[in-house]
C-alpha cells in the first residue's frame, strides 16, 4: 500500500506531466495558427467534439474501473489486494485516482485534437 507521501509525490508527478503535455500541445497549435493564416471553420468544431468524446469515454471507463475496485475492496475486505497498491477506501488514494482520471481524460482530449489536426495537415 502506498503511503500518503507516496500518493502526493505521484500526484505531483501527474500534474507536472500534464503541464508539460499542455505546453507541447499549445505550442503545436500556436505554430499551426501562425504558419497558416488560420481561420476557424466547421472542421475545428468537429475535431473538438471528437476530442471531447474520446476524453469522455476514457473518464467513463476509468470511473467504472474505480467503482469496481472499490466494490471489490469493500466486499472482500483484507482478503482483496488492490492493484498498484492503491486502497480506494483510503480518502487520499480515492482522491488521487479520481484526479488522475480527470487528467487522463484531458490528455486524451488534447491528444485527439493534435492527431486530428496532424492528419488534416498532411
Notes on the protein architecture:
- The chain is mainly α.
- The protein is built from 3 helices and no strands.
- α1 (4-36) runs parallel beside α3 and α2 (42-76) runs antiparallel to α3 (91-121).
- The longest helix is centred in the middle third of the chain and has 35 residues, at 42-76.
- It is elongated and about 60 Å long.
Looking at this protein, list some descriptive labels.
single chain, mainly alpha, 3 helices, 81% helix
The number of helices is 3
Number of strands: 0
Mean pLDDT: 81
Biggest beta-sheet profile: none
Which class of secondary structure composition applies to the elements? mainly alpha
Unreliably modeled segments:
none
Kindly state the percentage of residues in helix: over 70%
Strand content: under 5%
Principal-axes geometry comes out as: elongated
Supply Rg.
18 Å
Elements, N to C (H/E): HHH
Amino acid at each position: 500500500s502506498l503511503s500518503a507521501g507516496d500518493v502526493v509525490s505521484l500526484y505531483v508527478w501527474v500534474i507536472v506531466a500534464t503541464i508539460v503535455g499542455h505546453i507541447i500541445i499549445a505550442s503545436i497549435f500556436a505554430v499551426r495558427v501562425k504558419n497558416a493564416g488560420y481561420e476557424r471553420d466547421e472542421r475545428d468544431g468537429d475535431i473538438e467534439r471528437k476530442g471531447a468524446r474520446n476524453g469522455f469515454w476514457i473518464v467513463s471507463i476509468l470511473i467504472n474501473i474505480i467503482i469496481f475496485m472499490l466494490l471489490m475492496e469493500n466486499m472482500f475486505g483484507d482478503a482483496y489486494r488492490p492493484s498498484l497498491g492503491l486502497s480506494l477506501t483510503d480518502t487520499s488514494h480515492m482522491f488521487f485516482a479520481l484526479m488522475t482520471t480527470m487528467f487522463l481524460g484531458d490528455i486524451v482530449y488534447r491528444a485527439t485534437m493534435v492527431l486530428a489536426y496532424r492528419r488534416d495537415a498532411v
